[in-house]
Write a structure and sequence with these properties.
The protein is mostly helical. It is built from nine helices and three strands. The longest helix has 25 residues, at about 140-160. It starts with a helix and ends with a helix. The model has no long low-confidence stretch (mean pLDDT about 95).
Length: about 180
């Protein structure tokens, strides 16, 4: 799966203009909040956000800057999962999930060293991913994604438990973001 396909999918999934009263992020269009649009140079009404601008923001903030293009060289499906998680929870959270999962799956550092949970995709995280995949093969990607999705699902539940207004979103998060 390439980034163009991922961008098409995320924009279709996020939909058009929404201003849900329970969403602390305020109004969004194609999943881009007004605050994020402003921080990235869009000065117009969020209802009028051009698709090309949304694509550019998604590509830069949720694909290039977090390093998912580098992950895609190793595992396109894993990069797609991280991209989707980053769009919904932020790149730092998605990267942290990957690092936690890799640490938990390294058999007490026998396969590769534990990673510092710095929430960044750097040389050490990529080396751990390569070592994991060399040992586990393509089936390892599926296990790694299950671990990341388990962490993601737990976070959604915790968000709903800690802020009842988030229950308005829980069903959709689980239905559209897990599995």
């Amino acid at each position: 799966m390439d980034i163009e396909t991922l961008l098409d999918e995320v924009i279709a999934r996020e939909g058009g203009y929404v201003d849900h009263p329970a969403d602390r992020g305020g109004p969004t269009n194609m999943g881009i909040s007004q605050g994020v649009a402003r921080a990235n140079g869009f000065a117009g009404n969020i209802r009028d956000l051009p698709p090309a601008t949304a694509r550019s923001i998604y590509r830069r903030l949720y694909w290039e800057q977090p390093g998912y293009a580098l992950v895609a060289r190793e595992s396109p499906s894993l990069a797609a999962e991280l991209f989707d998680t980053a769009v919904n929870m932020g790149p730092g959270v998605a990267n942290g999930f990957l690092q936690r999962a890799l640490n938990a799956l390294n058999r007490n550092r026998r396969d590769y060293p534990d990673l510092a949970l710095d929430r960044m995709i750097g040389a050490r995280t990529l080396a751990a991913l390569r070592a994991f995949r060399a040992l586990r093969g393509p089936a390892g990607d599926a296990v790694l994604m299950k671990a990341i999705e388990a962490l993601q699902g737990e976070r959604y539940l915790a968000l709903a438990e800690s802020r009842p207004a988030n229950e308005a979103f829980l069903y959709g998060w689980l239905a559209n973001r897990i599995g």
